[in-house]
Design brief:
Shape: elongated
Number of helices: 2
Largest sheet: none
Order of helices and strands: HH
Oligomer: single chain
Strand content: under 5%
Number of strands: 0
Helix content: 25-40%
Radius of gyration: 17 Å
Length: about 90
C-alpha cells in the first residue's frame, strides 16, 4: 500500500526528450499506425511505398505529444507539404 509522505516530490509530466519514442498507451494514433503497418504488409515491407501513411502516423504522434515536433526534412521527408489525411 502506497502512501504520500511530506518530503516526497510530486511528478510533473514533461514532453519526451529527443530520440525517445514513448508508447501510445491511450491508442490516440492507433488508426494511423494500423494503416501504416497494413501498407507495409501489402507492399512486402517496402517502406518507400508507404510514405504517406508513415508521415500521417508521425504527424499524429507529434500532435499528441508522443514525440518531439521536428521538421519534416529531419525525419527523412524531402518535401515540406502537409501529410495527406485519409
Amino acid at each position: 500500500m502506497a502512501s504520500m509522505t511530506f518530503g516526497q516530490k510530486s511528478f510533473t509530466p514533461s514532453p519526451p526528450q529527443k530520440g525517445s519514442f514513448p508508447l501510445d498507451h491511450q491508442n490516440e494514433c492507433k488508426r494511423f499506425m494500423l494503416k501504416y503497418m497494413l501498407c507495409l504488409r501489402e507492399n512486402k515491407s517496402e517502406n518507400s511505398l508507404c510514405r504517406d501513411e508513415s508521415r500521417n502516423y508521425l504527424e499524429c504522434r507529434m500532435e499528441k505529444g508522443l514525440m518531439a515536433k521536428e521538421e519534416w526534412t529531419k525525419l527523412g521527408f524531402s518535401d515540406a507539404s502537409e501529410p495527406k489525411t485519409t
